[in-house]
Amino acid sequence: MLDELLQRVRGYSPHVLESHEGFPEAAVLVPITRSDEPEVVLTLRASGLSTHGGEVAFPGGRRDPEDRDLIDTALREAEEEIGLPPGLVEVVGPLSTLVSRHGIQVTPYVGVVPDFVDYQANDGEIAAVFSVPLAFFRDDPREVTHRIDYLGHSWYVPSYRYGEYKIWGLTAIMLVELVNLVYDAGIDMQRPPEYYIHLK
Question: How far is CA 91 from the centre of its chain?
Fold first, then answer.
């Protein structure tokens, strides 16, 4: 399963936005565990943060001037936030670039990490580090659907519940792209699900 996952990500041509001077750049790492049943590693951001406080996210952040490239940004931030040494990460490839509601251009990079890592959460930024089987998202067990209007289009973004964690927004969009790529899940965010309720 993991080998096919890696092959699909390596052969993928994501939608990459050209660097836009109006948007600061950021990158996140999408860590996938090297195991027969791959899991995705996520963080719960500390509630006191000015942006995305209390939200589930992939480790990552804004590009520093010293960063050689956005992969460097993703690896540096993952080390700062969850104590993941860059040498343990095999970067596989990017997913599509997105623009957050705060006007930040975010590029996700899928990376393979060992199955057992002793993550050290940076208390100032991260409240918890947890993992979810990637296959959990394959069947789209959404709790609710959020409609996001962006660049003249409506996107119907799933919100997932895994234990005590709510996974939604940009993180859910990245996960949908990944499971569609890896599992041919066919989750369509451009049209509402059958049970979506349009409120007048």
Answer: 14
